[in-house]
Amino acid sequence: AIQVTQSPSSLSASVGDRVTITCRASQGIRNDLGWYQQTPGKAPKLLIYAASTLQSGVPSRFSGSGSGTDFTLTISSLQPEDFATYYCLQDYSYPYTFGQGTKLEIK
Amino acid sequence: QVQLVQSGAEVKKPGASVKVSCKASGYTFAGYYLHWVRQAPGQGLEWMGWINPKSGDTHYVQKFQGWVTMTRDTSISTAYMELNRLTSDDTAVYYCVRRAAGGLYGMDVWGQGTTVTVSS
Fold it and tell me: Is A98 in contact with B44 (CB distance < 8 Å)?
């Protein structure tokens, strides 16, 4: 199975900050990676698919990049509603695997 | 609107089975695979597998083979996930989520989640 290592596991930041979360796959996965946001008690929400395509309705302050083994999610200017946990998911090969998650907290 | 509505919370004893339903509305049921993802308390997300509502074909993560069964009833646009021989490790929130056939897009619509608690 492809392992996906997500970092950092937690992050403290302030409203207006720019933050970056990374995922590294144990082998090349082309651009078959998505990013999901989860707030407590809620289902995850799709932010980005195919590494860099913004899901409809998602604010443009979210962006994704990468290909092969290294991927990043960037939030250009944090808003209060962005404090949540973020997961990446590789869907290149079975079994699909999630990163361990990054909890983004208010500083 | 497009939505997936799951069945309510369940409490089961070890060794029992649970069957969670996921009713789709607002889109063509056969046009999207339905995946199942679970999340143990305080833990991350774990992908379990999918069902193709059009054909009934399934794919399960190897660890769940022989233990999970995904089915569907196209007449009522509902998918089901049944997990057998429950242990406390199966205590989790179970989500159904759709993904367009062809795999070009992400998992874009999620059910609200069904909490399954396994306790003696």
Answer: yes
